[in-house]
Write a structure and sequence with these properties.
Helices cover about 35% and strands about 20% of the residues. By secondary structure, it is α/β, with parallel strands linked by helices.
Length: about 325
């Protein structure tokens, strides 16, 4: 197989590139040149947002293109149009954010979607991803695979959610743990996402798939206990009532990464129906493996994970922790 990876140097793109190399595929990585791609790839350089930025892709043929773009849909439109006659299939890494909010738990791929346009500049993440989906489908038809990922965790993470919890549990001491401990999570290890995407594209699948673990594949308790264990066991998890967290003004998701209290947002993020992807071969590894491998990767970087410039660093301050650990939160 000949793969053209649009991106391929960070997080999802890198995991897909490495999986393809492990299969013995011939991989071309098209990127801006800001980070080195994995060894064994052929590199082409260009900026999809600049005039003439796709010139390096004017020639060549590939069996599969994988695109992780999350900005203006016009970039997907232009790439897909350029490659439609010279590539067999196009896999676009989209997001479950394309569904209209609020959405009930159990929503499958036929749920209502946000509006999007392939001709739009960058608007907002859900609309950008939906516009990218439409652009891929317009150019490739049923040869377009739309991979609607949910929360993505694992090695190479450059968003900071799992790395923050790992570094915080490594420091030890009392730690507010957002409860309840049995709260179900729904996420996908980046390597499982990569493997499924290449398997599905290779099998000729097209259309949308929710690619994330079954809800409850892990719980908040299992996730944080795995973090505490792998980092040395010095952290003392103190389970904290959601009402106490709200009262203290600590924000779910951003200041308490991964965590969402039960309710509308939790149903939306952690309640998607993934039957279609499971029937198409999705296999999700245990949360302990994801956590341990991410910790090992962080160790190669001195504990400092890369951070995307367009995403704020997540996590609580020591002052916020102190408030939650006070008499009312103990």
């Amino acid at each position: 197989m000949k793969l053209l990876m649009l991106g391929g140097t960070e997080f999802v793109g890198r995991a897909i590139t490495e999986d393809a190399l492990d299969r013995g595929w011939e991989v071309t990585v098209f990127h801006r040149g800001q980070h080195a791609p994995p060894a064994g790839t052929k590199a082409l350089h260009g900026d999809r947002t600049a005039p003439g930025g796709l010139d390096a892709l004017a020639h060549g043929e590939w069996d599969l293109v994988v695109d992780t773009w999350g900005g203006a849909p016009t970039a997907v439109r232009d790439s897909a149009r350029l490659l439609a006659g010279r590539a067999g299939r196009y896999a676009y890494i989209s997001s479950r954010s394309v569904y209209q909010y609020p959405a009930p738990a159990g929503l499958d791929e036929d749920g209502p979607l946000v509006d999007g346009s392939p001709d739009a500049g960058s608007v907002a993440y859900p609309e950008d991803k939906r516009g990218g989906e439409i652009a891929a489908a317009d150019a490739f038809g049923d040869r377009a695979l739309l991979v609607r990922a949910g929360l993505i965790l694992g090695p190479y993470e450059n968003v900071g959610r799992l790395p923050w919890w790992l570094n915080r549990t490594a420091r030890g001491g009392p730690l507010p743990a957002p409860g309840p401990s049995g709260l179900p999570l729904q996420y996908v290890d980046v390597r499982d996402l990569a493997r499924w995407t290449l398997d599905a594209a290779g099998a000729g699948l097209g259309g949308p798939y929710n690619v994330v673990s079954p809800t409850g594949h892990a719980t908040m308790g299992g996730f944080l206990e795995a973090c505490a264990k792998v980092t040395g066991g010095a952290a003392e998890l103190r389970w904290t009532d959601p009402a106490r967290i709200e009262e203290a003004g600590v924000q779910p998701w951003t200041e308490l990464p991964v965590w969402l209290p039960e309710g509308e947002m939790h149903d939306f993020m952690y309640g998607g129906d993934v039957t279609r992807a499971l029937e198409a071969g999705l296999v999700c590894r245990p949360v302990g493996e994801t956590v341990a491998d991410t910790w090992a990767w962080l160790g190669t970087l001195g504990g400092v994970a890369p951070q995307r410039s367009d995403r704020p660093s997540p996590g609580m301050s020591t002052e916020q922790e102190a408030v939650l650990l006070g008499p009312q939160g103990s």
